[in-house]
Design a protein that fits this description.
Blueprint (H helix, E strand, L loop, with lengths): L3 E9 L5 E10 L5 H11 L9 E5 L18 E5 L9 H10 L3 E5 L4 H7 L6 E5 L5 H11 L4 E7 L2 H9 L4 E4 L15 H14 L4 H9 L2 H11 L13 H22 L7 H18 L9 H10 L2 H5 L3 H6 L5 H7 L7 H9 L5 H10 L4 H24 L3
Parallel strand pairs: 2-3, 3-4, 4-5, 5-6, 6-7, 7-8
Antiparallel strand pairs: 1-2, 1-8
Length: 399
């Protein structure tokens, strides 16, 4: 079977919440539409189980009824170019689309208006490429098409494009603008962040439980948030953790270090922090899953932490080197986060590549690790599902 790699991008609304994920498919040159459908079917088992939509961008795929030969989850939305609905043989494709349970998004271009006015298909969304329209054009088109579907914008390259799309009446925008730190970076962690780092360092050094408890007691609110967090549904524990000492007994130092690291990642007041947290969790779980069988089992948690910390500069508003200089992290984690190579760097680079639209780069990076497209895609869907389950819950415990 020909290789088909996935990449993903969040759709963010005007409340700065991720409301959907856009999955872009990157087939190799020999892939047929049924190869693409088989790649999607192979990952359906790990599809995020939430009400948030998963938009499928077929990009360079051949768009015909062969794409529909898989059992689609209810949350699926298919992006359809107008040309696929008007050319030779399009009648069969239109009939197949009418029978599919998925909702539809029409990609808007020069031919789209005629399709909207003549097609028997019902579209839930109209998708606009933010790089193909000026803000005034987008505003006019949003009004012109609002009776046919809700407006979505794709490929907003920066915050200005994101905001101008929303100002034009677009409901949600696909963009990664928030991964770059906003505003001037602080010279040091704030007291709350520094206290979490002190506790993490104690846990990493396997300090006595009483010593760690003493550090936690310096910030009662932190202790409370940690216990609420560990007892949240995302952890799936069979009993309630009632104290830090109990947490050590149930989880062990390694797992506790992992979840304290996530707590640090939530210690942000940035309005885009929930989206950043979701992205960091996706990277963390993806790196952990990709590493199975490639590194020693005891390194899985370190890979998770590498992914979770990879956006700390944006989350905390402090440069990465300043964050890391106060932490006792293994060299492999620090080297990867600072862009200095090391054993974990290829996994982080692949996680970052999964957020871009360069299919060749994803395939090349996965190939360096000996990973097939199916292995990579499944891990990516598992990571998205994990982040969906845990990200918002993690965030609310910091509030």
């Amino acid at each position: 079977m020909s290789a088909v790699f996935f990449s993903h991008q969040p759709l963010i609304n005007r409340q700065s919440k991720i409301v959907a994920t856009r999955l872009t498919l990157h087939p190799d040159t020999n892939a047929s539409s049924r190869d693409v459908a088989r790649a999607l079917a192979a990952s359906t088992e790990f599809w995020p189980q939430s009400e948030k939509l998963m938009l499928i961008n077929f990009a360079n795929c051949l768009v015909d009824d062969g794409l529909l030969s898989w059992e689609m989850p209810e949350s699926t939305t298919l992006e359809i170019p107008p040309q696929a609905l008007t050319g030779l043989g399009s009648e069969e494709f239109v009939s197949a689309l009418q029978a599919t349970p998925a909702s539809l998004c029409l990609i808007y271009d020069a031919e789209a208006q005629a399709v909207l006015e003549s097609s028997a298909l019902k579209f839930r969304f109209i998708g606009f490429d933010a790089q193909n329209f000026t803000p005034p054009e987008l505003r006019l088109l949003t009004v012109k098409t609002q009776a046919h579907g809700l407006g979505m914008a794709f490929r907003a390259s920066d915050e200005a494009a994101f905001q101008s799309s929303l100002n034009a009446g677009i409901n949600a925008v696909a963009s990664w603008f928030f991964k770059r730190p906003s505003g001037a970076l602080a010279k040091a962690l704030n007291p709350g962040q520094a206290q979490i780092v002190r506790v993490i360092n104690l846990v990493r050094k396997n300090a006595e439980v009483r010593e760690i408890e003493a550090a936690l007691k310096q910030d009662v609110a932190l202790s409370y948030k940690l216990l609420r967090y560990i007892n949240s549904a995302g952890f799936g524990l069979s009993c309630e953790i009632q104290s830090f000492r109990h947490a050590v007994t149930i989880l062990g130092y390694d797992k506790l270090n992992k979840w304290l690291s996530l707590l640090l990642a939530t210690a942000s007041k940035d309005p885009m922090a929930p989206a950043l947290m979701h992205t960091a969790l996706t990277r963390a779980h993806l790196m952990e899953k990709l590493a199975h069988g490639l590194v020693e089992r005891q390194e899985y948690d370190n890979l998770f932490i590498t992914g979770a910390f990879s956006l700390l500069d944006a989350l905390l508003g402090v440069s990465m080197d300043k964050v890391l200089e106060s932490m006792s992290l293994p060299a492999a984690i620090s080297d990867a986060l600072l862009g200095q190579g090391g054993a974990y760097a290829p996994f982080l680079e692949l996680a970052k590549a999964s957020e871009n639209e360069d299919g060749e780069a994803i395939a090349e990076q996965a190939g360096m690790l000996g990973l097939s497209s199916e292995q990579f895609n499944r891990a990516q869907m598992q990571a998205l599902a994990f982040a969906e389950t845990l990200a918002w819950g993690a965030w609310q415990f910091w509030e």
